[in-house]
Amino acid sequence: MATYLMNNMRLLKVLTATLLITLAPWAQAETQWLDKIVAIVDDDIILASELETRIDSINANIQRSGKEGPPPEQLRKEVLDLLVLENIQLQLAARYGVRIEDEELNAAVARIAAGNNLTLAQFQQALTASGASYLAVREQIAKEMILQRVQMGNVSQRIQISDQEIQSFLKSEEGRQRTAPEYHFSHVLIPV
Fold it and tell me: Does the reported pTM lie above 0.85?
């Protein structure tokens, strides 16, 4: 199935390139980029707009705190690294079927609202007044909960290790080193 999709994607790219080359002399319109890909992470991509949005958000937080932020290029690199790491973790979570149930997400949103001394309706109004979308904030909270689960190792509960794998590890050099007995000697002199 994956090979079939890859072949179709290649064919589509070739046809698109051929069409663009054929129509290029007649095209009077100026090319306008909608977005750019800044990183490819396994099966996903990170767009320039995502990177800029996150940088703007971090800069706003830095300004609110009154602290001085890192140089722009360093911040850009660190934010891109963070986005790549988050993307890898989200893909890992998707592979292992980590999901956040609606009840759990609703409870988390309610806790955040209560932590700000607001009811859920007041929290939604405050978000709307600040220009943020309640659904986008809710989606971000779910994403952070998934990342937290991956980071806490809840994914590892679903990994099964066979007896053969254990035996192979114990026979390996690292396994022998970790299971070798350790002795701690000390010399104690007590004058009488």
Answer: no
